[in-house]
Design a protein that fits this description.
The protein is mainly α and 127 residues long. The chain is built from five helices and no strands. Helix 1 packs across helix 5 and helix 3 runs antiparallel to helix 4. The radius of gyration is 16 Å and the shape is elongated. The protein starts with a helix and ends with a helix.
């Protein structure tokens, strides 16, 4: 009985997290092709950018595809997708911290990674 009540109480919050971590990566991934929200190339760590065999724009389009796929996985297989999004956000934050640029964005990405990880853990019990 207590477990059922807890699950019912958590379900709306879980669904909100699922929708957020499903749709936001899809929207951000699509924007890598248009740069309507921001110029995404500014977030490429210069050390990494210098090693790329292609332009920063091409790199960001590849990133966009990865983000779109990650968002779809969250919507279809929330637990797995949550871990993927958490890892992805952590990697982005580490690259930003590595160049000590956009530290504010890096901190936000780490907070979102913790949230995505938490959603993945909850998915085991709610989904």
């Amino acid at each position: 009985m207590e477990s059922t009540n807890l699950q019912q109480a958590i379900k709306p919050t879980f669904n909100l997290l699922k929708l957020t971590f499903g749709l936001v990566p899809i929207v951000a991934g699509l924007d890598k092709f248009t740069n309507l929200l921001t110029n995404w190339e500014q977030y490429i760590n210069p050390s990494i950018g210098g090693m790329l065999p292609f332009s920063g724009h091409t790199f960001m389009m590849i990133v966009g595809v990865i983000e779109i796929v990650a968002g779809i996985i969250v919507l279809k297989k929330t637990e797995i997708g949550g871990y993927i999004v958490a890892a992805w956000l952590t990697l982005i934050a580490l690259t930003l911290l590595g160049s000590f640029s956009s530290v504010d964005v890096a901190v936000r990405d780490l907070v979102m990674a913790i949230s995505a990880f938490s959603m993945a853990r909850i998915a085991k019990f709610v989904a």
